Amino acid sequence: MKLVKYDTLVIFLALVGLISSCASKPAPKQLAPKVIKSTKKAVVLEYTETRTDFLVKPVFQTGRTGILTGDADDPAIWVHPTEPSRSLIFGVDKVAGLWVWDFEGNEITHVDAWGKPGNVDVRYGLELGGKLVDIVAMNLRKVKYADASKIAVYGINPDYTSGDDVLFTLSDGQTENNDLQTGTYGFGLYKNPATGLIYAFENASTGPISQYLIEDDGTGKGISLKHIRDLEYGGEKCEGMVADDELGFFYVAEEDSAVHKYYADPEMSPAPIHSFAFAEDGYSRDREGISLFNFPDGTGYFIVVDQGDASNQIASILRIYERQGDNKFVKTVALLDMDGKPMWDEDGVDSLYTPVLPGFPNGILIGHDGDNSTYTIYDWKDIAGDELTVYGE
Fold it and tell me: How many whole angstroms separate alpha carbon 34 and alpha carbon 55?
């Protein structure tokens, strides 16, 4: 009995020593020290960033997504046609559905789409029942109780009075004639300005990138999908997708390699016309969320989330390109959270130039805080600094 007690004590002390030894090791430093600056005062950093000297703190953030832990991924913006203060922020939670906030970050509602959401996007003016309806849509990677993937589309009610009437369902995981490729992964919307038709693009991770027409299902109360064409894509895994409606391009972020540019109009060639955001721009890992910040004169910026690598203490970062021409690389920006700390595992991003949003006369950018399952909102003027254009100034 004494021998057993002695052995137990020795093992216990050895374990304590091992734990103490591990705990006493300093945390690995992400990067070497350098001088940094911020567009907000009193920013306290837990690491030193050498990939950029431009750090931006948000103006506000949304609440958390998710009923319990939260798994936020991708945001979108809708601007109210007559009362900009009633505009909305959308964000998906990959487990719990679609969240809706006002422009003070207050939750209005959240919706169970009857499936696992992927990415979310907004377009204005879908013809439905003889009327034009603004929509928010997302791909459902899986639906409940079935081996299928679908598109969930909701009409946005500009006359909403509460969370109960802000959205109305046009399709979700329970409806028919809205099937996507099984295992759908990336997703984005496109509206042809000449025809007014709205399309969805999606892919099944590495499968073909398919384009569908979203149209009235004949009832005026729902939508159906019509497959139009596939883009010529021979790359690997991709998720981030965004359309430049005005210039007629569609962009796809191949996570490990580059961003590829296509014609969005289904009457045009399905072949890629340009690629950029290669490794030489400094990417540490995935090209994740992508967004356009488009000015009325056809110029603006293209934004790519370099997701970083949290396991190796590399935070997420934004890499910004020109919207026009060959998408020249122009700037790198590190987004901070509300506490002035780095953002980790950032997925989606959305941005918009409009002078009407209260508090954001120069435009807005929404980031994703993977650690906290929230969305962070930034003033474009803070993102632009002295290097990028602030429209109208």
Answer: 13
Handedness of CA 175, 178, 184, 187 (dihedral sign): negative
Nearest to 114 by CA among 97, 138, 90: 97
Report yes or no: 372 and 388 within 8 Å, Cβ to Cβ. Answer: no
State the Cα–Cα distance between residues 52 and 334, nearest whole angstrom: 7
pLDDT at position 48? 63
Nearest CA-CA partner of 221 in 171, 174, 178, 179? 171
pLDDT tens column, 129-153: 999 999 999 999 999 999 999 999 9
DSSP code per residue over 126-156? EEETTEEEEEEEEEEEEETTBS-EEEEEEEE
In contact, 196 and 213? CB cutoff 8 Å: no
Give Cα separations from 210 to 76, 136, 207, 265 (angstroms).
21, 19, 9, 13
Q: What amino acid is encoded at 149 in this protein?
A: S
CA separation (Å) from 308 to 151, 251, 327, 382, 391?
A: 29, 21, 22, 22, 30
Mean pLDDT for all residues in the chain: 88
Average pLDDT over residues 253-276: 97
Q: Taking a C-beta distance cutoff of 8 angstroms, is the pair 100, 177 a contact?
A: no
Each residue of 21-56: pLDDT tens digit? 333 333 333 333 233 333 443 344 455 677 888 899
What is the C-alpha to C-alpha distance for residues 283 and 138, in angstroms, rounded to an integer?
27
* Interacting residues of 374 by C-beta distance below 8 A, sequence separation 6+: 61, 62, 63, 64, 65, 72
